[in-house]
Amino acid sequence: MSYFDGIAPIAFEGPDSDNPLAFHHYDPDEVLLGKRMEEHLRFAVAYWHSFAWEGGDPFGGRTFDRPWFDGGMDAARTKADAAFDMFRILGVPYFCFHDADIRPDGATFAENSDNLKAIVDVFEQKMAQGGPKLLWGTANLFSHRRYMSGAATNPDPDVFAFGAATVKTCLDATHRLGGENYVLWGGREGYETLLNTDLKSELDHLARLLHLVVDYKHRIGFKGTILIEPKPQEPTKHQYDYDVATVYGFLKTYGLEGEVKLNLEQGHAILAGHSFEHEIALAQALGVFGSIDMNRNDYQSGWDTDQFPNNVPEVALAYYEILKGGGFATGGTNFDAKLRRQSLDPQDLIAAHVGGMDICARGFKAAAAMLEDGGLEAARVDRYAGWNGADAQHMLYDATLEDIESRVLNDGINPEPVSGRQEQLENWVNRFV
To answer: Per UniProt, where does Mg(2+) 2 bind (predicted)?
Structure first.
């Protein structure tokens, strides 16, 4: 019997439907800006939060009762059956996984690898039968106690070796399953105190792992994109992958900016003190935008609560920046989101994704309408129009500081401030959302 018995595939019923298990705004076949909505949004389900998380928190243990939680490879196969049932019910085109989400831990690296390969066999069969494609795979280099001081940045070279070998097996699995990206999430690549940390060595070692991954990608012919996911503050006090600017500076320093792009999460952007659209816009400007995790935090908690999106204006501004940059290439919209620990039923897991997909669809439609209207871009062009003049271009590309001073003196330049019209532009955005 399926874990999701009795739940039919989710259909688009439109905004007037009151069916909680129907799409009200996400119509995968609706064409916007010349493409189907499914092709724009490229939805993916996260295997870890949906099927591996047990509903615990720092003050209490498991609240979920899933039939695959206890056991070895048989339980992992049962989990895979449930996962692909849910993918089918939702009609998502993609999924994502960490190795530790899909296979049980073995006593050795060899056992881990064998278990991973066995589940990849299962995935391969299910995908061949019409299952979704793989948006990206990754390795869990943070949960096991061996990684308490990091993986690539660990002071113990044997931990670096174990982590690097694990990444190889996960990249092999991703390549075999036709994954379109591979993500490196440095969950514990940081430090708690400088008293016991050689910061420069740790950065060098992290860069070494990235170079090894890039070299291996090219050797095996993996055509997907290598992604890093920035994350500030947690779990370590000083994360080396804090935000877009920090990661780009790291990539530039070590000559990796042409090989690695970024997977950006809304919740992580907020923890870093930014808006999601800021992080997307900066990654686009630097040429390193890749993919997104669409989830939110509880703004009163100050923690990464990984909740499903429910704020259309926030989502719309994020997709506006994505569309302005040309949309997704190999990336997509992954729901790195989990149920609340009181949400116990199979229907809750389906409904959470249905709601998240609808919110994204509403936001995406608003973003597409804003882009087609052109009002925001026209206002931006007008604000910077002065830079198109001959004097401004000369100042920008050819003039010396002395030349600029002479022009200010000779032309009597004494500028008055010009309104940024922020409130008017906010009102303009609100017409669409």
So the answer is: 265, 268, 304, 306
